[in-house]
Write a structure and sequence with these properties.
Layout lengths: L1 E5 L6 E5 L8 H7 L6 H5 L3 H10 L12 E6 L4 E6 L9 H15 L6 E6 L21 H17 L4 E6 L3 E2 L1 H7 L3 E5 L10 E2 L11 H11 L1 H10 L5 H7 L4 E3 L9 H6 L11 H14 L3 H34 L2 H22 L1
Parallel strand pairs: 4-5, 5-6, 6-8, 7-9, 8-10
Antiparallel strand pairs: 1-2, 3-4
Helix pairs in contact: 4-5, 5-12, 7-8
The protein binds ligand L4XM7KOE.
Ligand L4XM7KOE binds next to helix 12 and helix 13.
């Protein structure tokens, strides 16, 4: 038996072939069909259940509005998109970190996909870094779990078999910058006039904290020792042109979106990102991702291992110590005071903006 299900969240159609007999592979089947996956919800439905609903009515696996991450794959070009979707600022909570790792692994499990674009459904913020509320008066149980989930995102992104391209539409401070630096290629939007320039960098010292060694070293490996040493100490947030000059990003796109939407992007982007089909950062990110996807994968992955395996090994070896340092540091009284002050300032700024 074969039936087709109209997906409410993308224009793609899912072919369901003899789904009743594919119980253990149902999530895979949906994923291969190009449907944005959401592991929790998919795994909570049995294949038999899905098949029954599929015969009767359009299948709504999840709503893109309440997914922390939205994904889609375009097998023809070998490119996928993984977009963070946690309003208002894509700040990294335990759950968002886990969703990024899970979705990346799901994309990796499709042998037809060679590249992934890491993007944001927010057109002005790539990611605001760690969710600062995770750091204030944290519980003893959640804090190490939270940090572990961030380490895991780094390991998964930096060590991915996929070519990873960061489409940085807007701000990317601290751990938001880490996500971008863990990718293979970074494209940043040049901003809309001098007053609305997005920035990228490790601003931790401005919050009274310091980037952990693996994050700091990521900047060192990207822009070189001396510039990184200075940027880390000062907590520099680079506007686009400075980020390009320093080598924090590989490309800056200053042109405005055109009115014509790009046909490939229409097929590639998840519904939550359909407004970005004429966005020059996305267009460039797709071109770059497709370019990587054409390189013989074994050779591409081997070359990535040459530059990344040592630091990944080091990360694995020091991971537990890193978690202990982090928890000790964050729960220190002085650090807690600094963080509270910072959040207070952030809230005041938000209020002033709204009034
Ligand atoms: C020896 C070893 C020791 C190891 C020790 C380790 C120590 C820890 C290392 C941690 C490493 C990583 C750290 C981080 O990532 S910390 C987070 C850093 N991020 C920031 O500082 C960004 C703060 N946000 C901003 O500057 C702006 O919001 C931004 C430029 C991103 C966007 O500005 P915009 O004007 O467009 O938007 P708003 O400011 O109005 O923000 C919208 C709403 O989002 C909320 N928000 C923003 N950022 C965060 C955040 N990071 N966490 C939680 N919430 C955030 C903001 O409050 C607004 O909310 P409301 O709409 O409710 O007002």
């Amino acid at each position: 038996m074969s039936s087709t299900v109209d997906s409410p969240i993308s224009s793609s159609k899912i072919q369901i072939h003899q789904l009743d007999r594919l119980a253990p592979r149902s999530a895979f089947l949906l994923f291969y069909a190009g449907h944005p996956p959401h592991q929790t919800m998919i795994s909570s439905l049995s294949a038999r259940h899905i098949a029954r609903i599929a015969r009767q009515q359009p299948l709504r696996l999840f709503s893109s509005q309440d997914s922390l991450v939205v994904t889609n794959v375009h097998e023809e070009s070998g490119v996928a998109v993984l977009a963070m979707n946690r309003p208002p600022a894509n700040s990294l909570s335990l759950e968002l970190n886990e969703a990024i790792s899970t979705s990346l692994k799901q994309i990796e499990s499709n042998p037809k996909i060679q590249s992934v674009i890491l993007a944001s459904s927010n057109p002005t913020i790539f990611s605001a870094g760690l969710d600062i509320t995770e750091l204030i008066s944290p519980s003893d149980e959640r804090l190490p779990k939270f940090w572990n989930s961030l380490q895991q995102v780094y390991i998964d992104l930096y060590g991915s078999r996929l070519a990873t391209v960061a489409a940085i539409q807007g701000h990317a401070p601290a751990a938001g910058c880490m996500l971008a630096l863990a990718c293979d290629y970074r494209i940043m939007h040049g901003g809309h006039g001098e007053e609305h320039l997005p920035t990228i960098g490790f601003n931790e010292t401005q919050l009274g904290i310091a980037a952990p060694p693996w994050m700091g070293q990521l900047m060192v490996r990207t822009i070189g020792f001396r510039p990184a040493e200075r940027a880390l100490a000062l907590g520099t947030l680079f506007p686009p042109s400075e980020a390009l000059n320093a080598g924090v990003v590989d490309d800056v796109i200053t042109e405005q979106s055109s009115s014509e939407s790009n046909e490939v992007l229409k097929a590639l982007l998840p519904e939550a990102l359909q407004s970005q089909t004429s966005n020059p950062v996305m267009i460039k990110a797709y071109e770059e991702a497709a370019c990587y996807a054409k390189i013989p994968p074994q050779a591409r992955v081997a070359s990535k291992l040459v530059t990344r395996s040592e630091s990944l090994k080091e990360m694995q070896m020091t991971r537990e110590d890193d978690t202990q340092h982090f928890c000790g540091f964050i729960t220190h009284e002085v650090v807690q005071k600094n963080l509270m002050k910072y959040v207070e300032k952030m809230k005041q700024r938000g209020k002033a903006k709204k009034s």
